[in-house]
Structures are given as structure tokens and as C-alpha cells.
């Protein structure tokens, strides 16, 4: 797994030779208060996993989970996998409850959460928009809006970049390669 | 008692083909790329047929809009059925259907009924053949069945999918011969073919096209075809044997018959003009060189049937399949 | 020697301007689909397949296979520069490739990735050239028990060799296997775990999960970091290339080991994903300094890339020789061959000799041309680094959504992708490894059905997994890897008994 999450440039950048130095004025403050600890999240996830395992175990018990004369039934493997999953999750619940280091580490700070929501909420709106407007219009709005409101880039740059990107996607997928994508009223108006 | 007699419908189809030559030009035309929905995985018989039609339509300029093949083989093809069911009124999607439209709703309780869709045309019938590994001594069905009856543990029979046409055929074979098989449901006919070559199964009931290459390589031997009459193709395929040289199972004393339709469906609630456009399109496809060449190479039985003939055929075929599924005990409670 | 003559003939077929131009186009398109997260090899090849219908079979398959090589090469670029694996098999490349880029060695990491891809592919192509006929007969010995044993080996190597908390690896693996089981059970023909939902019928597609787990979650994680950091522009100079190439012979053991693992897992359908992880894990295991892995070791780039590409290339061997695709992309190529009326199988080597050897020759040429193209065009792709993140992030989100949708034409999959994005974000932060999860998702169904087919065939007798030397060896090896921590502890204790003086001081383990 990537141990270190990506650090890419956000705003202004000053360049020297082959290196790019990036400034990030909006960066989360180091002393921002923690919203919750790793331990809490670890325990919540464990409980959710136990719940999920119980649901799956129930459904597979209903499907049939025994070993017939010629091998296992449809629910056999998933049922025992659920049992193993529940076991591992309960073990995890106990260890994280006892863990002092996890309790002391922040899962996410208030500043960090704000920035994560800056991406998450637009993404959510984008997917909702895709259902009504089609993927191309929604993509234009997402790219332009995100650049403008999160990146605070000049209007004309946002609209131009977004338009070029969306047009390139449209030409590649719809015109050149006939890949079917969700479409909305705008495409219908142009008869695509 | 259980046999499928689709052959006479094929005769009717050939007649329909010759009669319905001058069709009225349809007023409606697709405005978007047309999606051929395949209820199976990549490289399977349905996929190959869809791609044959795609190239036949594109090479002969039968339609202005392009054709896209959409693979929806998830959940053994149920994905494609549900996709079509949810596409009411969208005449830019056609399903390439086979016997799964009758069987899947029974075996897996998938809430689907082919009557929800709009039948367009039956375009071919597929045969089934009983194959054994070429290194085994069996030359006739009887020798094979006798050996299977005596065998412990039982012979392994390879096939595609569970509680589907291959499985039904295996059960029919068991009933007629008294032998017992351990049926191994593989995910594709190609896999069933190589597993037979590798001697991991004793036999399979693949379609001709699925075993064509291994037959030509001399690795498997056909015992009989599950059909009323022999396959009509006389061209030499494997060594000096032709498809037409394979005897029918009935002639060999095992009266099991089954043929599988290959048919095109539109979603429900489409207009009569839209249906007429596709009837015309697929009729033209069946007249192309690509179609004819494909039929011969895959040993398919050419057919063309539309309208009332098709619905009547589908109803009878449905009843027969339901009977077979019920007898085999494959209908989910 | 016969192979050599046929290969020369194959080159003769290829050396026309038209074919060489098609090769370039294919490679560039391939790198493009490889770089875009979520589009990936199988999808890219599938989408581009109809483009080739107007061509003759040889041109078409050369272009398609070049798209495939391009995708294999391209996956490494985003892994190293962005920590976003363009392909599931590039996940392991991020472990050391991205830290290298952070340390300012992006050019070295990219050169290492491309060169080792080239070596891996070359090894596999040589293998294909000389072993085609004999491997064909060997692969026929694979029945359900053998297939299951190979999957078991892959899973066990994760639990046994993984560095994370064992219970977290197990959570990841079982969760992946459970989700893989959703939908139709092919052995009994029953639906399971769908709870009556038609969207769940088709199951959880692993590509959708991968796009969410790696693409979306990575953007969320990136946003919460302080983004003021140094990045390295990655234009590859001849000097860098020379430096990396001079260093390479030192890692011959890693390269060879990864080539062998990759080719093995490619021929037996274990796949490039498993190969890249196994290559990485074993390089780490055999290293004198395993702790330095993950901090930006060049060996950590060589190992997974060589294995992934050897496997991706070797996957074409069973496809050509037997018609069994060793990977998702190979499956699409198989479909492509059939369009031109070429039925892959043992006979193809006899009846369409020209075609087969033309294809094999194109593997050599395509890889050489591909290496040159990626080494020279990287500055173009590296230019992405100069674009503000607030422009890149929404574009990646859109590409992910397009990718997730295009796989099965399902809106539901875009929502699923978002859900996996959240899961990936949380799991990464609480230390649940994601690699076992994706592997379980992709292999789970095949592993289960091969187990159950073995059981039906053997009448429920478990000894079938030791019924012949081939399956017995693989199964035993799998259990050895599963209990590797216990076994290596026993070895250590054994050593200590031989050297009692030393062990006294080191205390209880």
C-alpha cells in the first residue's frame, strides 16, 4: 500500500532548475484539533464489519451452507468466510480498544476534514448531476467549478480548460470510439 | 417423451425467407449507435455471432449508425436480461438471445419473462454434439454409455453453466441410458473443450463451434449429434470427416434431441416501425456472405423467422424447455 | 532453430511502413489508456477493437497487441509520479516508485520501470518463441485441482509473507472473497447475496473497486495533506538512462526471479496482478536489507515491473496455444482473433503459421519501439505535474467515473466506485491492506469454482489436491508460504540451538 499519501501541487509554484517548489497557503494547520482518533474509527469499522459479516452469514445460511455429498453448496464458502471475517473483526475490536497508540493518533483533524469534504461534496454532486445532465455536462461543471472555487483560478482559464477537457473526452469516447456514456438533455438537443 | 422438434419450424423459416423478399422500406431509423447486447462473456458463441453481425452490417453498409457490441455476461447472462427489461422503449438496443431466456427465470428465480421484450427475428439454430477424448476407445454412444454405467466414480461430463442447456442434456442422457455422470459446470464452452482434451473430463456436450479446433487437431471425437437429422454441411472439416458424417443420437438408439435458438429481441414498448426496421436489417444480414460463411464454419443451421411465426415458435419452445427443466428438477422452489 | 527461421519470416511480414506506423499509433494510444486511471488495458483494448475491423488480420492484431504493450508501459507513469496505479498490476510499483519520485529520483524510477518492463516482456517473448509447443501440452495437465492450487498459492503468499497485522490482512482477504461471491454462483446456478437487487446481480466488478480504492481514495488522502512539497520534473536524460542501465546488472537475481515468477503466473492464469505482488514480496524477502523497501529502493521498482510484464506477455501464450486467456486483456484479444476467423488453439500454429509468427515478431518489435517511445515522451506525461492540483483532481475524478461506467455501462458502478473510494480512504488510514482485497475480488470466484469442480469430480475427496506430483507440489508450497512466519521462527530457533551462546544474549524472540 502507498504508505505516504500523494503530495501534489495546489496553488502557486516557484520553479528552480529541475525541482518544483509548491506553496500551499490553505494547508491544514498542524495544531488543528482532532475530530476523532484512529482507535475510534478502527472500532467503528470493526463493528460495521461484524454487522456486514452477520448479514452475509444469514443470507448464505438461507442459500444453503452445508457440505453436500459432492462438495460444498453455494453458501458454504461465503458462510465460513463471513465467520472468519467476523472473528478477525472482533479480534481487531479488542486490540484497538486496548491500543494506547491508536487512541493518541488523530484519524482526521478539523482542517483536514474540511479539505476532504471540499473534494467529496463536489464529487457527490457530480455523480448526482451525471444522472440528470449526462456525464459530459456534469464533467464540464465539475472541472470548471472545482478549479474556480477550490483552486481560485481565473474564470476564463477554468471555463476554457474545462471545455477543452470535456470536448476531448467527448470526441474520444463518443465520436471516435462509440463508447456509450450517460447522456442528458443537451446531447439529445444535438441529436447524439 | 422429451424431445425438441424445432426442425419443422426451421423449414417454415426457410419458406418465410424466400417469400418475404420485397419488404416495405421502414420509415424509422436509429439515431444513435446501436448496441447489440450479448448475454455471455467475451469470445463465447453469442459474442462471436454479435461481432459477425457487426462486421456484416458495417462492411455492407446496411445501416447509417455504427454498431456497438455490449458484453453483459454477468450473473450467467441475467445481467443482459435485466438490462433489456429496464430499457423499455429504447430501440437502440438489441439482445442476441438463446435458450437462457427460458431457463434462467426458472432456475435462478430471475424476475424476467421474454414476453416483456419485443421479438424481432430468429436468425439461427445451434446443434449439440456428444464428444469424447480421442484417446478413449469409444466409437458409439452405446459403448460410451455402457462404460459410463459400469464406472465408479462416475464419468465426468463437462459443460457450460449450471442448470442450463448442457446440464439439461446431461440429465436427458442419464435418463435415456441409465448411466450417471458427475456434471462439471465450466464458465465457457472453450474451457469445457480444453478440459476434455486434457482428460480432466470424460466427455462434453459442446456446440460444434466450441469443439471445432480441438476436433480438427484430432484431440476429440464426436459420437453423435442431438438432433432429429444430421447436420447438413458436407465439407471436410477434420481429416476426411464432415459435420454431416456425425450420426444422430436417435439413430444410435439414444433418443435425445435438443436444438438451441439464436434470436434477436428489442426491449418492450417499441413502435411497430422500429421493429420493422430491425426485421428488415436482420433479414439483410442473413443474406450477406459474412453470415453464410459464419453459419457453415460454426455448423449452425441458418434460419429466419419473424412476426407471428416467431411468437408461435417461442411459445412452443418455452413450453418444451419448461418441461425439460421441470423433469430435470432444476426449477427453483 | 526452426523457431528462429520462422521468427525471421515473421519479421519479414512486419517490416512495412504501414505496419510500423500502426505500431506507433497503437503504442501511443496504449500508453494513453494505461496512464488514465481506470481505463486500463482490457478496457482500452476492448474500446479500440472496432477500430481495427477494417484492417487485415495481421495489421489489426499488431495494432491491438501494441495497444496492450503501451498499456503495460503506461501504467507505471502515474504509479510513480502520482502514486495512482493506472493498472491494478502497477500497485506494487507505487511502493518504491513513488517514494523515489518524492526523493527527486522520478526519472530514475521511470527509467527503471520501463527498462524492467522491457526485460520482463523480452524474457516472456523468448519463452513464447521457444516453448510454445511444449508448454501447450503441459498446460493441458491443468484441471480444476491444479487451478485451485495455484490460486491457493497466491492467497497464502499474501497472508504468510505480508508485513501488516495478520488479522487486518485476513479481514481484507475475506472481505474481498465475500464480495467476489455476490451474484450468480456458477457451480449451482443459484443467486446469492443479492438481496433481490438487480444491480447486485452482476456482482462487484473488480475494476470498479480498483478505481474507487486507488483513484478516488487517493484524491481524498492527497487533499488532507499539506501540499507544499517538492516534486521532481521527470524528463529522462540519456545520462539517467545510462546510470540506471549501468546499475542494473547488480540486480540480475531480482530481474531473473521476477521474470520467472511473472512468466509462470502468466502461463498459469494467476495474472499480472498476483505476479507483481509476488515479485515484490520475494525481492523484499530475499533482500539483505528488507526494511529499506518502501522507502524508495530501485530494486522495489525492478521487481514488480519485471514480473508484471513478464506475466502480461506470457499470458498470451496459453491464449494462442490453447485459447485460454491468461488475463482480462488476453481475453479481449482472443475475442479479436475470432472476429478474423482465427480460432486460437494448437492448430493455429500449423494453419496460420505466418500470422502466429508475425504476432510473435511484433512482440519483439513492439517492445523495442515502445521502450524508445516511453523514454522520450515521458516529459509530455510528466508535464502533468506542472498543472495545478485543483485542475488535475476533477479531471481524474471524471476519468475514474468514465472508466467505472464504461466497464459495464452501469450508473450503479459509479456509485459503487464512490463507496469504494470511502472504504479505501478509511482502510488506508487504519492500516487494513488493500492489495489482498483486490486480489481476492478478482480471483475469488475462479478459486471457489475450481475448488468445487474438484470436489464434484473427486466425489468430495480432499486428497485430490495431492493426487499427482504437479498439484501436490503447488498445494504443499501454498501451505508452506501460509505458515512461513511459524516455519522461519522454527528455523531461527534451530539455528539458536546450534549456537547457544549467541541466543542467550538475544533473549526470547
Question: How would you characterize this protein structure?
Answer:
- The complex is a heterotrimer of chains A (192), B (333) and C (509).
- Chain A has 192 residues and is mainly alpha-helical.
- Chain A is built from 7 helices and 6 strands.
- Chain A is flat.
- With 333 residues, chain B is of the alpha/beta class.
- Chain B contains 11 helices and 13 strands.
- In chain B, the strands form 3 sheets. Chain B has a 6-stranded mixed beta sheet with strand order 2-1-3-12-4-13, with helices on both faces. In chain B, strands 7-6-8-5-9 form a 5-stranded mixed beta sheet, sandwiched between helices. In chain B, strands 10-11 form a two-stranded antiparallel sheet.
- With 509 residues, chain C is an all-alpha fold.
- Chain C is built from 23 helices and 3 strands.
- In chain C, a hairpin with a 4-residue loop joins strand 1 and strand 2.
- The chains are: A mainly alpha (192), B alpha/beta (333), C mainly alpha (509).
- Chains in contact: A-B, A-C, B-C.
Number of strands of chain B: 13
For the biggest sheet of chain A, the summary is: 2 strands, antiparallel
Strand content of chain A: 5-15%
Total number of β-strand segments of chain A? 6
Number of helices of chain B: 11
Q: Write down the overall mean pLDDT of chain B.
A: 86
Q: CATH H-level name of the largest domain in chain B... which superfamily?
A: Bordetella uptake gene, domain 1
Rg from alpha-carbon coordinates of chain B: 20 Å
Amino acid at each position: 500500500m502507498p504508505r505516504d499519501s500523494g503530495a501534489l501541487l495546489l496553488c502557486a509554484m516557484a520553479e528552480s532548475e529541475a525541482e518544483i517548489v509548491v506553496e500551499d497557503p490553505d494547508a491544514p494547520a498542524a495544531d488543528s484539533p482532532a475530530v476523532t482518533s484512529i482507535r475510534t474509527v478502527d472500532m467503528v469499522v470493526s463493528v460495521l464489519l461484524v454487522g456486514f459479516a452477520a448479514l452475509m452469514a444469514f443470507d448464505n445460511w438461507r442459500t444453503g451452507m452445508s457440505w453436500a455429498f459432492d462438495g460444498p453448496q453455494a453458501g458454504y464458502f461465503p458462510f465460513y468466510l463471513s465467520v472468519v471475517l467476523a472473528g478477525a473483526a472482533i479480534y481487531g475490536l479488542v486490540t484497538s480498544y486496548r491500543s494506547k497508540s491508536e487512541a493518541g493518533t488523530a484519524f482526521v483533524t478539523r482542517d483536514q476534514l474540511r479539505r476532504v469534504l471540499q473534494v467529496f461534496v463536489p464529487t457527490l454532486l457530480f455523480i448526482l448531476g451525471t444522472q440528470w445532465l449526462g456525464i459530459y455536462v456534469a464533467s464540464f461543471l465539475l472541472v470548471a467549478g472545482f478549479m474556480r472555487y477550490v483552486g481560485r483560478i481565473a474564470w476564463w482559464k477554468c471555463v476554457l480548460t474545462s471545455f477543452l477537457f470535456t470536448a476531448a473526452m467527448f470526441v474520444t469516447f463518443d465520436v471516435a470510439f462509440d463508447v456509450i456514456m450517460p447522456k442528458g438533455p443537451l446531447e439529445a438537443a444535438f441529436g447524439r | 417423451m422429451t424431445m425438441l422438434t424445432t426442425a419443422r419450424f426451421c423449414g417454415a423459416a426457410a419458406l418465410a425467407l424466400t417469400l418475404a423478399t420485397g419488404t416495405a422500406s421502414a420509415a424509422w431509423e436509429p439515431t444513435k449507435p446501436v448496441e447489440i447486447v450479448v448475454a455471455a462473456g467475451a469470445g463465447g458463441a453469442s459474442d462471436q455471432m454479435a461481432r459477425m453481425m457487426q462486421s456484416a452490417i458495417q462492411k455492407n453498409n446496411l445501416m447509417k449508425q455504427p454498431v456497438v457490441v455490449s458484453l453483459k455476461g454477468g450473473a450467467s447472462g441475467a445481467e443482459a436480461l435485466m438490462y433489456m427489461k429496464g430499457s423499455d422503449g429504447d430501440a437502440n438496443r438489441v439482445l442476441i438471445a438463446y435458450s437462457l431466456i427460458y431457463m434462467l427465470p426458472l432456475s435462478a428465480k430471475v424476475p424476467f419473462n421474454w414476453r416483456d421484450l419485443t421479438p424481432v427475428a430468429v436468425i439461427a439454430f445451434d446443434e449439440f454434439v456428444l464428444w469424447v477424448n480421442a484417446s478413449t476407445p469409444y466409437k458409439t454412444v452405446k459403448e460410451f454409455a455402457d462404460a459410463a454405467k459400469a464406472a465408479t466414480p462416475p464419468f465426468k461430463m463437462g459443460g457450460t453453466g449450471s442448470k442450463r442447456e448442457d446440464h439439461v442434456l446431461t440429465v436427458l442422457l442419464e435418463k435415456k441410458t441409465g448411466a450417471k455422470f458427475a456434471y462439471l459446470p465450466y464458465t465457457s464452452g472453450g474451457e469445457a473443450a480444453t478440459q476434455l482434451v486434457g482428460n480432466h473430463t470424460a466427455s462434453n456436450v459442446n456446440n460444434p463451434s466450441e469443439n471445432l479446433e480441438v476436433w480438427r487437431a484430432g484431440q476429440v471425437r464426436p459420437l453423435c449429434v442431438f438432433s432429429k437429422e444430421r447436420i447438413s454441411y458436407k465439407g471436410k472439416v477434420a481429416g476426411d470427416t464432415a459435420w454431416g458424417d456425425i450420426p444422430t443420437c436417435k439413430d444410435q438408439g439414444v433418443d435425445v434431441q435438443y436444438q438451441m435458438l439464436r434470436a434477436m429481441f428489442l426491449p418492450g414498448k417499441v413502435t411497430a416501425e422500429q421493429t420493422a426496421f430491425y426485421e428488415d436489417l436482420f433479414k439483410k444480414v442473413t443474406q450477406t456472405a459474412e453470415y453464410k460463411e459464419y453459419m457453415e464454419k460454426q455448423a449452425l443451421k441458418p434460419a429466419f423467422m419473424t412476426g407471428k411465426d416467431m411468437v408461435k415458435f417461442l411459445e412452443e419452445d418455452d413450453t418444451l424447455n419448461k418441461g425439460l427443466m421441470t423433469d430435470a428438477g432444476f426449477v427453483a422452489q | 532453430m526452426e523457431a528462429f527461421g520462422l521468427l525471421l519470416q515473421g519479421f519479414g511480414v512486419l517490416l512495412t511502413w504501414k505496419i510500423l506506423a500502426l505500431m506507433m499509433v497503437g503504442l501511443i494510444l496504449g500508453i494513453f489508456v494505461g496512464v488514465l486511471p481506470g481505463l486500463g488495458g482490457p478496457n482500452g483494448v476492448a474500446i479500440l477493437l472496432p477500430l481495427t475491423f477494417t484492417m487485415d488480420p495481421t495489421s489489426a492484431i499488431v495494432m491491438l497487441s501494441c495497444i496492450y504493450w503501451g498499456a503495460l508501459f503506461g501504467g507505471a507513469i502515474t504509479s510513480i509520479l502520482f502514486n495512482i496505479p493506472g493498472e491494478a498490476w502497477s500497485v506494487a510499483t507505487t511502493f518504491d516508485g513513488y517514494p523515489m519520485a518524492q526523493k527527486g529520483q522520478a526519472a530514475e524510477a521511470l527509467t527503471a520501470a520501463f527498462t524492467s518492463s522491457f526485460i520482463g516482456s523480452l524474457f516472456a517473448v523468448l519463452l513464447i518463441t521457444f516453448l510454445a509447443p511444449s508448454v501447450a501440452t503441459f498446460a493441458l495437465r491443468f484441471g480444476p485441482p491444479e487451478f485451485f492450487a495455484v490460486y491457493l498459492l497466491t492467497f497464502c503468499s499474501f497472508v504468510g509473507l505480508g508485513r501488516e497485522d495478520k488479522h487486518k490482512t485476513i479481514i481484507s482477504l475475506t472481505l474481498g472473497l465475500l464480495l467476489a461471491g455476490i451474484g450468480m454462483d456458477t457451480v449451482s446456478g443459484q443467486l446469492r447475496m443479492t438481496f433481490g437487487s438487480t444491480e447486485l446481480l452482476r456482482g462487484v466488478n473488480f475494476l470498479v473497486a480498483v478505481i474507487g480504492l486507488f483513484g478516488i481514495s487517493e484524491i481524498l488522502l492527497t487533499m488532507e495533506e499539506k501540499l507544499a512539497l517538492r516534486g521532481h520534473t521527470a524528463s529522462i536524460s540519456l545520462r539517467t538512462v545510462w546510470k540506471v542501465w549501468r546499475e542494473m546488472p547488480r540486480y540480475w537475481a531480482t530481474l531473473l526471479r521476477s521474470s520467472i515468477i511473472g512468466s509462470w503466473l502468466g502461463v498459469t492464469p494467476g495474472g499480472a496482478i498476483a505476479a507483481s505482488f509476488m515479485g515484490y514480496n520475494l525481492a523484499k524477502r530475499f533482500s539483505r536489507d528488507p526494511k529499506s523497501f518502501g522507502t524508495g529502493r530501485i530494486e522495489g521498482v525492478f521487481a514488480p515491473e519485471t514480473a508484471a510484464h513478464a506475466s502480461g506477455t506470457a499470458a498470451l501464450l496459453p491464449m494462442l496455444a490453447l485459447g485460454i486467456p491468461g488475463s482480462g486483456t488476453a481475453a479481449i484479444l482472443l475475442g479479436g482473433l475470432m472476429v478474423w476467423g482465427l480460432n486460437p488453439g494448437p492448430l493455429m500454429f500449423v494453419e496460420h503459421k505466418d500470422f502466429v509468427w508475425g504476432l510473435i515478431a511484433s512482440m519483439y518489435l513492439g517492445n523495442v519501439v515502445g521502450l524508445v517511445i516511453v523514454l522520450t515522451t515521458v516529459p509530455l506525461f510528466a508535464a502533468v505535474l506542472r498543472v495545478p492540483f485543483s485542475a488535475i483532481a476533477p479531471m481524474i475524478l471524471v476519468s475514474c467515473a468514465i472508466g467505472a461506467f464504461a466497464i459495464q455501462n452501469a450508473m450503479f458502478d459509479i456509485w459503487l466506485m464512490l463507496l469504494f473510494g470511502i472504504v479505501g480512504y478509511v482502510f488506508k488510514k487504519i492500516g487494513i491492506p488493500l492489495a489482498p482485497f483486490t486480489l481476492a475480488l478478482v480471483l475469488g470466484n475462479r478459486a471457489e469454482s475450481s475448488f468445487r469442480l474438484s470436489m464434484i469430480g473427486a466425489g468430495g475427496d480432499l486428497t485430490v489436491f495431492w493426487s499427482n506430483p504437479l498439484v501436490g507440489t503447488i498445494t504443499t508450497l501454498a501451505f508452506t508460504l501460509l505458515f512461513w512466519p511459524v516455519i522461519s521462527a522454527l528455523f531461527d530457533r534451530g539455528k539458536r540451538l546450534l549456537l547457544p551462546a549467541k541466543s542467550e544474549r538475544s533473549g526470547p524472540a
